[in-house]
Structures are given as C-alpha cells and as structure tokens.
Amino acid sequence: MPDWPVLDRQWPHANPDHTLDLRDKQCPFTILELSKTLESAASGDLIEIILDGPAALEDIALWCRKTGNGIEEPPGAGSSGAVASGGRERWIYVRKP
User: Fold this and answer.
1) Residue 71, domain extent
2) CA torsion 53→15→75→95, rounded to 10°?
3) Which CA distances in Å does 70 have to 24, 44, 86, 96?
4) Contact 56, 30 (CB under 8 A)
5) Which of 5, 71, 75, 79 is buried most deeply by CB count within 10 Å?
6) How many CB atoms lie within 10 A of CB 21?
7) CA dist., res. 62 & res. 67, Å (int)
C-alpha cells in the first residue's frame, strides 16, 4: 500500500461530488470506472472511491500519477495522498484537475 496517512473514516471531506463503490472489484475494472467517472466530472470535482483491496488502491494511485489527476490530501498530512480506513474498506479521494 502507498505510504500515505491512514485516517479515521470521519475525516471531514466536505461532500464529494461523486462516490464510487468499488469493493470486491479489481483492475482493470477499478480504473475503467474511475476513468468513466472522471470523463463526466467537472474540473475540480472530488471523487470518493471505496475499495477493499490494497492492489486496487495501488493501481488507482499509480494511474492518477500517470494521468495528472490529483489525490487529495488531508490538511496537515504533508504527503501526496490520503486513505481513510474503516475496517476492510479504504477510501481514497481523487480530484479532477
């Protein structure tokens, strides 16, 4: 898993514009769904992605770096991304440039 801060699920991310529930999904499906959502999203939209597999998390993070889509970071985290944890699930936040 990327070396990002793991945050409480209650991280107050103000109302994401889109939410993708990709639990039990693997690449390439995760990337295809995110890409499809980003195509219809407006510039600056925040996409909340719910995952339950570390490989999917790494795939999305790598894809975002390659495509220039931003991974949101919590205030004061000082890293290049954020993962919120809630049991098996992980939330990652992607911002469309």
Assistant:
1) 6-95
2) 60
3) 24, 10, 22, 6
4) yes
5) 71
6) 13
7) 9
| Residue count of the chain | 97
* pTM, to two decimals: 0.73
pLDDT at 85: 56
Quote the tokens at residue 93.
């936040």
- Domain with residue 21: its CATH number is 3.30.110.40
Q: What is the pLDDT along the chain (97 residues), one digit of tens a residue?
A: 444 444 444 455 557 899 999 988 888 899 999 999 999 999 999 898 888 877 888 888 889 889 988 887 544 344 444 555 556 777 788 889 8
